[in-house]
Amino acid sequence: MLTRTDESALVLGCERRIVNAWPAVATLLVGDWVLRFANGYSGRANAATPLSYGAELDAEMLDLIEELYRADGLVPSIRLTPLVAEATRAAVLERGYRVKDKSFGMIGPLAGLAPSEEPEFEMEARAGAEWIAGCAALQTGVKTHAGNLAAILERIRLPAAFATWTVEGEPVAFGMSVAERGMAEIGLICVSPDHRGHGYGRSIVRGLMGWAAAKGCSDAYLQVEQGNAVALNLYGSLGFRQLYAYETRILD
After folding, report:
1. Is the sign of the CA dihedral 113, 114, 119, 123 positive or negative?
2. Which residues are within 8 A (CB) of 235 and not within 5 positions of it... i.e. 6 or more apart?
3. pLDDT digits (tens, 9 = 90+) for 195-229
4. Taking residues 52-81, what's their average pLDDT?
5. What percentage of the chain's residues is helix, strand, coil (to nearest 5)?
6. Per residue in 68-100, is it b (16+ CB within 10 Å) or e — as a string?
7. End-to-end CA distance of the chain
8. CB neighbour class for 24 (10 Å; exposed up to 12, middle 13-18, buried from 19)
């Protein structure tokens, strides 16, 4: 049975690896926090994130964060994870930061999994132009911008897998994984609306889990919005469990 200390180490390990698995275009370190900038594409890559337990922000640091994001044309954004000191959490709320979204960090074991041998499952070590365009086309809002997605993906320096599921040669589902020090993040899982309900998302996730296991990873981790019942059911059925909850808050 995992102890509270073990769980804390997993949370910290996931949050630190995320910075490398989903790199921003630019980053700054401010105390125990990393400030990330990626032209507004993705919440994680455009927010201030704590990287140690009990991470604090005083008034001067909060002023700096707000100045830097606004100078970049971005809304000040702070991820309040279990790593944040309670006093800092209270200070962020007092300033009027509102909830943008709430997410769960989930983790799942990879023992016994093998790489997918299904012919519909295709995988490459780098994100090609077709993969990026196909994935971007299934996003919404600013995430439809393929150029901004490419700017993030081309900065990945760790072993990575970019998966596609095809139906009669047509790409209908996408996903990616990045492996680092025994753990692999799984993300960007998306399925064409015309092909949902056939298990293609599950096949993509399982295939990426098998890839990660072959890379020597013992666990996979991911982040999902708390209100996404379909994704939560999918990941739960594949052995993932909730490790922690966090919220992203922005200052209008």
Report:
1. positive
2. 106, 108, 205, 222, 224
3. 999 999 999 999 999 999 999 999 999 999 999 99
4. 97
5. 35, 30, 30
6. bbeeeebebbbbbbbbbbeebbebbeeeebeee
7. 43
8. buried
**How confident is the model at residue 1, as a pLDDT?**
44
3-class SS of residue 43: coil
Domains of the chain: 4-105 (no CATH), 111-217 (3.40.630.30)
Distances (CA, A) of 113 to 45, 105, 158, 177: 30, 21, 21, 15
Instruction: Kindly report, residue by residue over 189-204, the tens digit of the pLDDT.
Output: 999 999 999 999 999 9
Instruction: Give the other-Cβ count within 10 Å of 185's Cβ.
Output: 24
CA angle 72, 63, 248 (to 5 degrees): 70
Closest CA to 80 of 63, 61, 108, 56: 56
Using DSSP's 3-state secondary structure scheme, residue 151 falls into: helix
Nearest to residue 250, comparing CAs of 71, 65, 26, 103?
A: 65
Q: Within a 13 Å sphere around the CA of 140, how many CA atoms are in the beta-carbon half?
A: 3
Could you identify the residue written with the tokens 């600013």?
142
**Pair of tokens at residue 180:** 């680092």
